[in-house]
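Many introductory courses stop at the sequence. We go one step further.
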Amino acid sequence: MDKTININLGGMLFQLDEAAYTKLKNYLNAINVRFRNTNGGNETIDDIENRIAEIFMSMKGTAGVINSENVDEMIGIMGKPEDFERPGFEKESGPSFSANPGPRKKLYKNPENHIIAGVCGGIGAYLNSDPVWIRILFVLFAFFFGIGFFVYLALWIVLPLASTDQQKHEMYGGDHNWAMPQEWDQHTGSRVGNAINEVFRAIGRVVYIIVRIILIVFGTSIVVTGFIGLLAYVLIFIFKYPGAFSADIQGMNLTYLPDFLNYMVSGGAAPWIRILLTIAVCLPLLALIYGGIRLIFWFRARDGFIWLGGILVWVLCVTALSIILFNEGVSFAKHSQTVTMDTLKLPADTIYVSAGAKLSGIKSADEISLPDDGGHGYNIFIMEDKKQIAIKSHLDFNISDDKSTSIRIVRHATGRDRIRAEQNADRLVYNYKVSADTLFLDEYFTLPEGARWSMDYVDVNLSIPVGTVVRVDKDILETIMGSGYRNREEFSYRNGLLVMTPSGLSVCPESRLKGN
């Protein structure tokens, strides 16, 4: 069993192990050498011993054993003996210590003389003046475009707080009796100065309450925003539950985007993109929630390394995600298109346009809706059972240059180069057929099974002669022609009858309706 030694320090009994006793004895002897021949030295030594006793009490209490690590921690709080030097000290003979004028003054926030943050109290201690005059100067400069306010705010952020005895010693300088509580060593000051200080304290309390209310409201809003964002991301993109938080915004539906990712990028990159994207989105939201909680409860925490580590992880994830997306994005670098044309054997007076393969016939399909430049929408349907995707096509009517009816199908795609883009466009599968006076158009086109999406798009252009009546069924109106078609309501009312005029496709007039 290690040997323990009982000592009386500041009127309190402590047990120290042998190593701690030796270290503390040398520390107290060094302090005794510093102060025993100075005016008031004995009182200062007593104050230091009382302060050491308070520190030991906070560590172990009278029932614990003080070890060497506890003594090192105490010295870190109190400061080394050579930092206690004062002017007028007569150097003792001995090889261990040398006289010096004490530590240079440093600027701190003063926790023992503060109205708001202790900035003025710290400046007053540094300049050895009454802080009330510093406060008055800040108030006066606050009326000049807020200069005083912004300078105070900057000092509040930049200046450290004098929380340890060593820092207080540096704040007041070598001639200040730093070992005693600050209120025992305050200058009395004038009555006017004390009165002004009391006014500032009253104003400071009111300002503090107002600031705390603002911070609580702001912190609460941050926590709620972060929590809703985090919950929405998890429910929609991980659990695919859009019922709680709708993902439909101006015709946009991204609920099944993580599933569509398998068709956008290579198979090995998809899981890494999901993981990195989740970290890149959720980590800032968690930081937002934590920051809001700190604003609400106004607590201190030694979380600098946590914040630094979180920022580092986020930067690494965003960097890795950017590299992967850039590498995958090369596959969309070039655009190309292929065009097929065919003359249709349809009557010149009236033709019918009907839906062939319908979107409603696609089973077990998850839909992703994106807006496009034409206002028609870009709809993708994921058929997991076939490992295939279908995309809604678009129909336009044009005036025929001759008396015949023709169809022009333009397939668009992208690729790593022009050749690859053209190959991707050629693979798109779109079907139509003619039966008597009816043209059947598929509402969608498909990619081959297992093929990657390459920003594919199919545009169907139907050219008909002027004067031809066109009857378009409801499915074509709702899907292929899109919601941006002009005169939509009147067209619907007239049972889908249109007529090609020299200015373009228009609603069929009443005279033509009677003839039909």
